[in-house]
Specification:
Number of helices: 9
Helix content: over 70%
Oligomer: single chain
Radius of gyration: 18 Å
Order of helices and strands: HHHHHHHHH
Structural class: mainly alpha
Mean pLDDT: 79
């Protein structure tokens, strides 16, 4: 995973950073925790513009989140619940899981989007209930951009400040990111085999 990210950024520069952050939000196994620190390191070493890399990271992150918002908005709550009733076992979700999540989002919507953008995995998922529950697009963009800017900025700054130490860090980043992907797949398979989320009605 690390080699893929490093090669993409080397070839695409700031556009590569933006594209990876977009994909990271659409396909979570691509970790922003690798993309932005590496972009920060490259900026510190003078191989790319710090401003362009940072802005591209934020823009890519927000656009990726917007895709899931639109999916939620267009799909709708009732269609989602019917889907869960039919295929909840394969999604490892139940109707009760979804209804609890949406009720929670109704109580904490804007703060949920803001803080959710700083939590791995939740970063992607939080956009779906925002669309399902009809959060206004301007509000979604404001809170998503604010949360994403903080998250992307923190990761970018970490890579920028590491600079000379980054060569040491990258030696163990590749196996760690591979392990993360394995754990995500393993967690899904565990829920599937143990019957978590059989589509039961509340």
């Amino acid at each position: 995973m690390f080699d893929f990210i490093a090669n993409w950024i080397a070839a695409g520069g700031a556009l590569g950073v933006g594209a990876l952050m977009f994909l990271e939000n659409v396909f979570p196994p691509i970790p922003s925790e690798l993309v932005m620190p590496l972009a920060g390191y490259n900026a510190a070493s003078g191989t790319q513009s710090a401003v362009l890399a940072f802005v591209a990271g934020v823009v890519g992150s927000v656009l990726g989140a917007w895709i899931w918002y639109e999916i939620g908005r267009r799909f709708g709550r009732e269609r989602l619940l019917r889907l869960i009733d039919r295929h909840g076992r394969w999604l490892t979700l139940s109707r009760a899981d979804v209804e609890r999540t949406l009720a929670w989002f109704d109580r904490h919507g804007r703060l949920a989007v803001f803080f959710g953008r700083m939590v791995p995995t939740i970063r992607t998922l939080i956009s779906v209930p925002a669309g399902l529950q009809g959060m206004s697009l301007p509000a979604f963009f404001v809170y998503t951009t604010a949360g994403s800017t903080i998250w992307v900025g923190a990761l970018f700054a970490a890579g920028y400040l590491l600079e000379a130490q980054y060569e040491r860090v990258q030696a163990w980043l590749n196996p760690v990111t591979t392990l993360l992907v394995v754990l995500i797949v393993g967690a899904y398979l565990y829920r599937l085999v143990t019957g978590k989320g059989r589509g039961d009605r509340a």
